[in-house]
Amino acid sequence: MEDGILKAISTDGSIRAVIASTTCLVADAREKHQLSFTATAALGRALTGGVLLAPMLARRGQVALKFQGNGPLGKILVDASPEGTVRGFVDNPQVELPLNSLGNFDVGSAVGHTGYLHVTIDQGFGLSHTSTVELATGEIGEDINQYLVNSDQTGSVVVVGTHLTSAGVEAAGGLIVQLLPDHTEETICRIENNIGTFGTFTFLMRRGLSLEQILGRILDGFTLQTVTAVHPVSFKCKCSNDRFFEALKVLGKDDLVSMAEQEGKAEGRCHFCNEHYYVGKERLLDLARSD
Question: What are phi and psi of 210, to 5 degrees?
Answer without folding.
Answer: -80, 170
